[in-house]
Amino acid sequence: MNKQLEIGHDYASIFGLDPEDKGQHMIYNGGNKWLAQQPGSEREIESEKTTALALAYINQPSVSIGAW
Questions:
Q1: How many whole angstroms separate alpha carbon 24 and alpha carbon 44?
Q2: pLDDT in tens, 9-29
Q3: How would you list the strands of the sheet with 25-28, edge to edge?
């Protein structure tokens, strides 16, 4: 089962943004709509490619180390 993006969730780290130190955010608003924020500005983005990249990232296999 594939994971889905969560509306209102900040996916900044997937895109190399720094929410902790630089206040940069990339918030998913549903469909192909995103809200890019940084101190002093914000921009609404509609991008199928951005959504596809985020979905591919959250659905990539994870690695487990240790005993089962």
A1: 14
A2: 999 999 999 988 999 999 999
A3: 25-28, 33-38, 41-46
